[in-house]
Amino acid sequence: MQKNLSSPELPSVTEEITHPQPQHTTTLMKKIPPQIFALLAMVSVQTGATVSKSLFQSIGPLGATFLRLGFAAILLLLFWRPDIRHLTRRQIGLSIIFGVAITCMNASFYMAINRIPLGIAVTLEFVGPLGVALLQSRRLKDLLWAALAATGIILLAPIGTTNVDLIGAIFALIAGIFWGVYIISNVQVGRAFSGGQGLALSMLVSACLIAPFGIATGGPMVFKPSILLIGLAVSVLSTIIPFSLEMEALRRLPSRVFGIFMSVEPAMAAMIGFLFLHELITARDLVAMLLIITASIATSLETKTLHQ
């Protein structure tokens, strides 16, 4: 997944989707509660993640990352049609930084879910936006939420009876770090470009960066029609559909409420992982996830209250 960052706080994980939007909303869309759009966006993202795992045996996580980012770049470039003839050095630099963040975030996440359950990976990845919010905070109370999140991470560490793969957990945390970088750089890209042109260009950079690794690990299978079709489905489910749904949700839903919805995404990921991938999570893992989700929701509420 991917979000109007006036400040990089937890709800801002949706920053990439707050570009100028169409003025007209159909009567049918208005009748649907915005919460439904937010929930469907989460379902779409996590479903895309489950579908992507079907590619891992054929082309590996990096090959799957290449197809997701490659198709996303093509679709976004066709939609936004950025003018590359009049780019400034600053715009080019920001596009590269943002593109690197997108590449590392997605590649690390796919490497993570190749080794650990989807719900645990998403939970650990949430440490990134949570860390950004906490680093911005000047409230002593937020130390409590940081402690809760840290406790959750420790519980997910492969210590004692837990069966979480260490390398997978590290990849998930790396994905979280780059999610934090993504959030911060997204602010600058949003200010430097109009509409979604910056996102489209950054996605192009990202696709070009991952291409050598994805093609090298996936080999000729990357270009097999059936694999390309699944890759397109992953890109649509993980990028295009949630982009549209979250955009519609944010038009009518307070960002504080949206932030809370985003904070429960690890639980959604765990449920989808259980239903479609038969991934089991222990009681210890559930407690750890609950601690991190609680810290995320609390930080969302505290940050929004502070800015009101």
TrEMBL record:
<feature type="transmembrane region" description="Helical">
    <location>
        <begin position="166"/>
        <end position="184"/>
    </location>
</feature>
<feature type="region of interest" description="Disordered">
    <location>
        <begin position="1"/>
        <end position="25"/>
    </location>
</feature>
<keyword id="KW-1133">Transmembrane helix</keyword>
<feature type="domain" description="EamA">
    <location>
        <begin position="36"/>
        <end position="156"/>
    </location>
</feature>
<feature type="transmembrane region" description="Helical">
    <location>
        <begin position="257"/>
        <end position="277"/>
    </location>
</feature>
<protein>
    <submittedName>
        <fullName>Threonine transporter RhtB</fullName>
    </submittedName>
</protein>
<dbReference type="InterPro" id="IPR050638">
    <property type="entry name" value="AA-Vitamin_Transporters"/>
</dbReference>
<feature type="transmembrane region" description="Helical">
    <location>
        <begin position="62"/>
        <end position="80"/>
    </location>
</feature>
<feature type="transmembrane region" description="Helical">
    <location>
        <begin position="283"/>
        <end position="301"/>
    </location>
</feature>
<dbReference type="InterPro" id="IPR037185">
    <property type="entry name" value="EmrE-like"/>
</dbReference>
<feature type="domain" description="EamA">
    <location>
        <begin position="167"/>
        <end position="299"/>
    </location>
</feature>
<dbReference type="InterPro" id="IPR000620">
    <property type="entry name" value="EamA_dom"/>
</dbReference>
<feature type="transmembrane region" description="Helical">
    <location>
        <begin position="196"/>
        <end position="215"/>
    </location>
</feature>
<feature type="transmembrane region" description="Helical">
    <location>
        <begin position="116"/>
        <end position="135"/>
    </location>
</feature>
<dbReference type="Pfam" id="PF00892">
    <property type="entry name" value="EamA"/>
</dbReference>
<keyword id="KW-0472">Membrane</keyword>
<comment type="similarity">
    <text>Belongs to the EamA transporter family.</text>
</comment>
<keyword id="KW-0812">Transmembrane</keyword>
<feature type="transmembrane region" description="Helical">
    <location>
        <begin position="227"/>
        <end position="245"/>
    </location>
</feature>
<feature type="transmembrane region" description="Helical">
    <location>
        <begin position="142"/>
        <end position="160"/>
    </location>
</feature>
<feature type="transmembrane region" description="Helical">
    <location>
        <begin position="92"/>
        <end position="110"/>
    </location>
</feature>
